[in-house]
Amino acid sequence: MAVKICGVEKKSPAAKKRIKAGDTLLKINGNDIVDVLDYRFYQGETELTLTFLRREKEKQVKIKKSEDTELGLIFDSYLMDAQHSCKNKCIFCFIDQLPKGMRDTLYFKDDDSRLSFLFGNYITLTNLTEHEVERIIKMHISPVNISVHTTNPELRCKMMNNRFAGDTLGIIKRFDDAGIRLNFQLVLVPGYNDGEELRRSLKDLSQYKNVECIASVPVGLTRFRDGLTKIEPFNKETAAAVIDITEEIAKENKERFGNRLVYAADEFYLKAERQMPHYLEYGDFPQLDNGVGMWSLFEKEADDALLNIDEPKTNRKISCVTGVAAYPLLKATVDKADLKWHNLECEVYPIKNNFFGDKITVAGLVTGQDIMAQLKDKDLGEELLVPSNMLRFERDLFLDDVSVEELEKALSVKVKITEPDGYSFICSLADI
């Protein structure tokens, strides 16, 4: 394998050795370079021998540098080759529930171990070759984030529609034996991997020496499920059962290991109408991206901010949007700010998800067209606060490709993008 170099940073170690765009990188210190993990791992050494191809002739250069100095090579893509797609056909896959006509990137099913290490993405293990397993162990890539769903091999095959899905559970033990830190995710589907199957999975995963966190999240169900496996959503009773099992195993783990390890996503507490755990229960909040502890952390951050941030310098009339699930939290936060500051008037609008269906209640899946339709003719004040997690990375488009500019024009209001944490939200309310 080899990787084409598309550019070289000026004054970098590679540039000083006259490596050029168009050269093909073959090896670093005798190690084949296939992708970004190989490159980043081996280029960290201080004495390097680069083997590369130029006009079909193999050449070598020796480079000395400090450990924290980058070589300076630029490649066509960040991963240096194609992103690895998912080979499963999970009964709960959210991408299979998307309507037609959305932008192409939303339909890509990621299952790439490199993105797990680089960006915290979760992988199923079913996509790993033996070479990749051995490389993760050799490089001691850690942590690895794994979508397990169940430790019952037969049930895992059934839920993921992959006859090899049960076999790949054995890779977890290999990683654990190698001292690699592990985070686990269970997407729970009522009647499949909840109940006793959940108890089994939490107990099994808690036994690994290097496990850091195990999170259970509820299946997300859109209205676009024609032809897919029939799945019932969680309700008050079934969500409460998930919490009870989770707290049972958490208590056992605290007694045995001094760490609860297992958590249920905030959405379970909302559905069960249970009080959220105290923010101290979540430690370092290792699974915020899975909606675990977001509510408690936001509340704590907002309360701390209100103690330290002064009221707006002028009277301020604004509005903000969120999903149905987070509405009580944001409304309570704004009410606290109103009581303290007196010169703030802020209306919080929960946006019902008509696009994906009313079973989807999280803010991150709210679309621009739903905001437009539900806030039309509303008095939004001088500014509308929109959380950044409603937009793609570039912060310009909602999931339905409605742009921020289109939203501003349709609602005749300035849109301000806010960070989805409590401290930043208070800062936005105060206009700082």
In short:
By secondary structure, the protein is α/β, with parallel strands linked by helices. The chain is built from 14 helices and 14 strands.
Domain module count? 3
Distance between the termini: 51 Å
Q: Write down the overall geometry.
A: globular
Q: Give the % helix.
A: 25-40%
CATH topology of the largest domain: pyruvate-formate lyase- activating enzyme
CATH class identity of the largest domain: Alpha Beta
Low-confidence segments, ≥5 residues, pLDDT <50?
A: none
Characterize the largest beta sheet: strand count, sense, and whether it forms a barrel. 6 strands, antiparallel
Second rung of CATH, namely the architecture of the largest domain: Alpha-Beta Horseshoe
| Fourth-tier CATH superfamily name of the largest domain | pyruvate-formate lyase- activating enzyme
Helix tally equals 14
Mean pLDDT: 92
The proportion of strand residues reads 15-25%
Query: What is the total tally of β strands?
Result: 14
Spell the H/E element sequence: EHEEHEEEHHEHHEHEHEHHEHEHEHEH
Radius of gyration: 25 Å
Q: What class would the helix/strand composition place it in?
A: alpha/beta
